[in-house]
């Protein structure tokens, strides 16, 4: 029975993380003003707009941040954690689930940025065609993080700004996301 629970929890994690990825990408692409003519940006818009359009009437954007998509990503994480706790046979605390969902979303976004910056750096070193849609979208999303350090951490022809940003993200996971995850788990279990 444990093997079946492990497999089911993996499927739940994967499905909800993919759904959260759509909403997080929508938030980041809009915040970074990614090119709307990019086929990936158009897919994100078409995939998320049926759900977001009614919510955006009630919850407008704040500056360039799509609060409706952010709210839905958070709710996806809350629902994922609730299902995982119920699957394990635990009765989760609602307030703890809300904190755990927020912590899980923060950690998810930080890991997402780590993977995105690493992939973007690797593709830019390999001289991939700059018109490639994935590279254009990734570049638009990581540029706001790299811009403050661009040119300041260059040695020869190598720019170390992606490495510095990745180090800050890893530290944020250790110092912000991990304690929040621990607090959310403790509150959820009622400890």
From TrEMBL:
Superkingdom of this protein's organism: Bacteria
Keyword flag Nucleus: no
Signal peptide span: none
Keyword field: Membrane, Transmembrane, Transmembrane helix
InterPro entries, A to Z: CCB3/YggT (IPR003425)
A Pfam family matched in the record: CCB3_YggT
Membrane spanning stretches: 6-29, 65-91, 97-122, 160-181
Name of the protein this chain belongs to: YggT family protein
Organism in which the protein naturally occurs: Dyella ginsengisoli
Lineage of the species this protein comes from: Bacteria, Pseudomonadati, Pseudomonadota, Gammaproteobacteria, Lysobacterales
